[in-house]
Amino acid sequence: MLDRIEKAMAAIGIDDASIVGTWKEIVELESYTRDPRAVEVLGTYLKSTFEAIGFNMEMHTYENAGPLLIGEMGEGDPSEGIILTGHMDTVFKTGTLAEIPFRVEDGRVYGPGVLDMKGGINLMIYISKLLKELGYTKPIKIVICGDEEHGHAYSDAAQKMQEACEGYKCAFNMETGLVDNSITVARKGRIEYEIKVHGKSAHAGANFADGINAIYELANIVVKINELNQKYEDVTFSVGIIHGGAISNAVPHLAEANVDIRYYNTEDGARIKNDIEAICSSPTIPGATAEASINSMFPPFMDTVNGSFYQLVDETSQMLGFGAVTPAHLGGSSDASYLTETGLPVLCSMGAKGEWNHTDREYAVIASAQERIKLITASILRLENKAL
């Protein structure tokens, strides 16, 4: 099988030079998650790229979020269909490219979003081309969202992705590949809370006793939230942002915090919400009030239906000489969570391998691109007429 795949790759010019060339083009179309129009420019580029391969493409646009691309190629029963999915938005603000330009160095590529996850998006192009060259005619669906990095807070992309995947056999989520050759079979869910505490302003010298200090009350809440880290197993509570007050000589009437919570199962999710609400509804300082609202949320990606799919990919990796893969359970969230909620077998971290997502050190290993193209293509061929 490997010989057949490599001959097809050579026939259509899939090599490191071509892969790095389109990688550069995609990275240089900056797509900061909170700049929807910039993400839309990349979406338009990808739409035309996949249309040139033979996909029928749709682009769903949103006022305050990047677009959602859905494309289909092939024919036949969707239950034999394969999904390649991912996101085109990044955490890097528009203009970062000037500070961290795309570059190739020592077998690695660098640049904003080069790994998370423009590397995976780039591979989707070549996997699709290769399957077409190999005469693969069963349904292939491309699902690429433009607002994953802020949790689809301003779009219905998560729901549309679930609807698009209904009835298909399985999905490869082309998120960041892991350098230890593991494949993600489970991820923690994520809830981001915004907590606002209201007190009463007063002059800190002349009327100190008349004030209700919102920062003091928020500090009490932060301590209580931190104590929840001891209550649960494999759940983390992290207060990442705090704001409060305007000047030092006034008792602050408002203080705010953002809390990141990670959890592995849906039952804990319900308990966590009850705990946060209980803490915020029980003020320590008389007269202070607090409210908690959810800014964004990912359900957990639970390893309930991925066993046979994972086993097939592991066998394929060994068959091709890439070695055994190992199952990973990660704390970071991804859209695999939404897809697996539908009962669809999903494997995550199937993109190019690398490290240091969301930092100026982010890189991807060039050699891993061809490896993953071959692995995923061979796995798709082996999935034909095979139940999972």
TrEMBL record:
InterPro entries: Bact_exopeptidase_dim_dom, Pept_M20_glutamate_carboxypep, Peptidase_M20, Peptidase_M20_dimer, Peptidase_M20A. Residues 185-283 form the Peptidase M20 dimerisation domain. Keywords: Hydrolase, Metal-binding. It comes from the Bacteria. This is M20/M25/M40 family metallo-hydrolase. The lineage of its organism: Bacteria, Bacillati, Bacillota, Clostridia, Eubacteriales.
